[in-house]
Write a structure and sequence with these properties.
alpha/beta; 8-stranded parallel barrel; 8 strands; binds flavin-adenine dinucleotide
Amino acid sequence: MKIASLFKKKTVFSFEVFPPKKTSPIDSVYNALDELEKLHPDFISVTLGAGGSGNGANTIAIAKRLKEKNNLLPMSHLPCIHYTKAQIDEILESFKENGIENILALRGDMIPDLVPTTDFKYACDLIEYINSKGDFDIAAACYPEGHTESPNIDIDIENLKRKVDAGASHLISQLFFDNDAFYNFRWKTMKAGIDVPIEAGIMPVTSRKQIERMVSMCGASMPRKFTRIIQKYENNPEALRDAGIAYAIDQIIDLVAEGVDGIHLYTMNNPYVAKRISEAVSGVIKAGDKN
Ligand code: FAD
């Protein structure tokens, strides 16, 4: 099933997971998948490293298991900047063989000391290429506060439009903590003629280290309410986790009330946190359905 078709009927609720580190066996993530299955997400996306050294085998194995064992709709991420066309061809073939038809097409982060291949410069190049290779449903990433390399949000939205014009059927946003930033962004995308569904990326904050890493990577702004929580509970992991969960729930309730197309929860492979959030928002998400 193509994910794009879901948005016509409902407020989509999806999860994101990542493959285990190279030092851990792949089945170390399977228990998390089994727990996430019980929360009935509309789909689960699986990240894929930008390095270009692997062939996405772990990502594909997890997506295949989600489909066959968990009976869930999988989406595979696919970065391109460090991949050659031949490597992308091999991965797309493997997607086809394993029944994976939903792809999040990405440029990927530049890896220091690794020279990009010249086959793909931007995500829009990959989207166009995938479209020429088969019948996939292609999503793309978007950045409510602008991509870190972009001179300003307006230029970033012009580039986002290129991805939609190339064939992206829906968008998934970078994490953000300020819903107003998302609403401003959504208004600007509408003015730019971007008319595909946009899922809001929500990351529940459960540790101080995690926040620092994430914010330094993506530059998300932190509203006063959010920083106060961190300062107050930074040395109390249980309280910080509870406050992070409550903050994410509050964000989601507000987003659904504002008619968001979908919520994409960055689960960090933590089913306990995903469960608490899912249970708290399930009625609200259902109330956003279109039939
Ligand atoms: P692009 O859309 O190509 O944009 C990159 C930069 O180039 C932007 O500044 C943009 O404004 C500019 N640009 C784009 N097109 C053009 C153009 N035609 N001309 C001039 N400038 C242009 N990374 C991974 O490696 N693996 C993952 O699994 C992964 N999953 C992610 C999931 C989500 C939901 C998000 C939001 C990000 C994810 N990332 C992942 C990170 C992502 O790869 C990085 O943010 C990367 O830096 C940009 O990727 P992109 O696809 O948005 O790039």
